[in-house]
Amino acid sequence: MSIRKYKTNPQILLAKGQEIMKSSDGSKFFTKVFAVNMVLSGQSAAEVAKSAGLCRSTVSGWVKTVDEQGFEALEEAKRQGRRSRLSPEQYEEIDTIIQQDSTGFGYKVWDGNSLSNLIMQRYGITIKVRQCQYIFHKLGFSRIRPQTFPSKRYEHTEERETFKKRWRK
């Protein structure tokens, strides 16, 4: 039997492969199925666990689960997050409000603080600033601050100085 000569250290490749196997939900499921199949084909759980970078008891547990409940039991259940305190109708209303001028609602700009305040006044729900920033993102808005001067191509021109003087007034 010939021994392969690797260009890259096999231990580095093995570590990367094990990392990929643990990286995403889809690959985790296939890793579990593959490990169980290896045990079912005659390899020991300890050998399979060692090559996959897992614990023997983990692989044995997967085999037991498959034996009792089938392969479907190895799939991760979708985890639910905390239920939103705002209803979908309230999100829609907030979306239409944010698209309007903020000065009509008594704010200079729409930001986390102003949205938090608006939600408290309208719905009586306390939502912190960071969560309001997430709401902006969820509704498709990006964080853009108004410039107090024209863009860079006007760096040292009279137009820029005029703009700055007008803006300060």
Walk me through what this model shows.
By secondary structure, this protein is mainly α. It folds into two domains: 10-74; 80-169, no CATH class. 57% of the residues lie in helices and 0% in strands. Helix 1 (10-23) packs across helix 2, helix 2 packs across helix 4 and helix 6 (112-123) packs across helix 7. It is elongated.
List the SSEs and their pairings.
Blueprint lengths: L9 H14 L1 H16 L4 H8 L3 H14 L18 H11 L13 H12 L5 H10 L19 H11 L1
Helix pairs in contact: 1-2, 2-3, 2-4, 3-4, 6-7
Number of strands: 0
Specify the biggest β-sheet: none
Overall pLDDT: 83
The N- to C-terminal Cα distance equals 85 Å
Shape: elongated
Low-confidence stretches: none
Order of helices and strands: HHHHHHHH
- Domain module count: 2
What's the helical proportion of residues? 55-70%
Short description:
By secondary structure, the protein is mainly alpha-helical. It has helices at residues 10-23, 25-40, 45-52, 56-69, 88-98, 112-123, 129-138, 158-168.
List keywords for this structure.
169 residues, mainly alpha
